[in-house]
Amino acid sequence: MNIINKTVLSEKLKESLSSVLPVTLIVLFLLATFIPVPASMLLAFIIGAVMIIFGMALFTMGAETSMTPIGEYVGTQMTKSRKLSLIVFVSFFVGVLITVSEPDLQVLANQISSIPNFILILSVGVGVGLFLVVSMLRILFRIKLKYLLLFFYTVLFILCIWIPENFLSLAFDSGGVTTGPMTVPFIMALGVGVAAIRSDDSAENDSFGLVALCSIGPIIAVMILSLVYGVDAEAYTDYSLPLVDTSRDIIGMFLISVPHYLGEVAIAVAPLAVFFLVFQFICGRINTHNLIKILIGLVYTYLGLVLFLTGVNVGFMSVGNYIGQTLGESKFDFLIIPLGMIIGYFIVSAEPAVHVLTKQVEETTSGTIPGKLLGTSLSIGVAVSVGLAMIRVLTGISIMWFLIPGYAIALVLTFFVPDIFTSIAFDSGGVASGPMTATFLLPFAVGACDALGGNIVEDAFGVVAMVAMTPLITIQILGLIYKIKHNRSVSAEAATAQSEETIIDIPETAKISLDDEDIIDL
Length: 522
Prior knowledge:
By secondary structure, the chain is mainly α. The protein is 76% helix and 0% strand.
């Protein structure tokens, strides 16, 4: 067995390069022209970009050969048992385990000084675990996702009435941060495994939507903790990069950081690996060939995440903060809006979990929803969200003036679009708001807000929440276009029985597909 499949690695490197290169070139252009930076920061950014490219390639290859098979195997095996108590226990346990192992959650914990890190991390993990149980039961009992989303988001926004203003942005940010590169591939594969047991036509559609529900748990958990522990949420990470004199010092900064992320990612991957080995030993052993393949995939995942997180945290974070601060101090501070939108459009394609989502959507729908078109829809949504977030930085408008109408529109659309588009849209919100958003766009907003003299916790935080919101609308609009296109096709064929049908089922209508021209309608 080859330890590294060179052909697959080459393909993943090309995908990674095409994803990371656009935003890298945009930032390099800014640094070389309008926003000069110290040479050390420029070199750190370039090294970080290279690490991100290789890290993403290894991670996506590892996710396909380990995270996805593990998730599908666990989902299938626990559903085959037909024991509801086992399904509930395993779902809750896995939800907590995978969440507390999420590297991005530690970043969130450091932002809230009034809540002990352990309490926050455990509470968020319990929140995800509970909502993963709800997700499993939804699939098994065939409950429509839109009704659950309507109920839980109504509860969530009612809860906002009692939450301190300076906690709202952080609370909604937590929903996107905790569904990161470790959580998303496993949870999505878990849904596929559970849905595979069902034999009805809508089973594959119901395999989506787990990330959508699991994103709600952390928000509610942080809100409840804010009521218990008080209103102090004024701490935030220092994004500045120490100035050094030589290239050797820059290399040294990366080398010093690598052991930290080696340990952090080990804490994330090891519990999942141990759980999988114990689970497959109890429920049915996998053949040796596939087991070795999965374990090698976990090594890819581990190394990929180490490279990726080191690159974004050391190389990208400080540059994002510096660009935002420089623009905020200039007389052209309004440029943070268009610049943020441009960077947001390209940066979402560099999120590791986005590649996992688009690939699974394309495979599950047999190409009916092309991954490229889904990615473009995500990019448009993120561009809009970053633009709105920058308006908040400039004006200090409360985040609720954006979130309430945004989610209201998204929830209303659920009653007019095919169910699978609703599931994919709400999944994509958690997927799009990953480590690239947290380590470049958030520091960018913090730098601009600091320069403008705004309230960083209330006005700059919330970028992740905004990025998680707008794809819910853009992808459902794509679903609306699909529905119109389908209905026109049925009418043209004069199929009377089908022309009266109002419920769109992707597997039965796979002959109707979207193409790149449809994105114009967005």
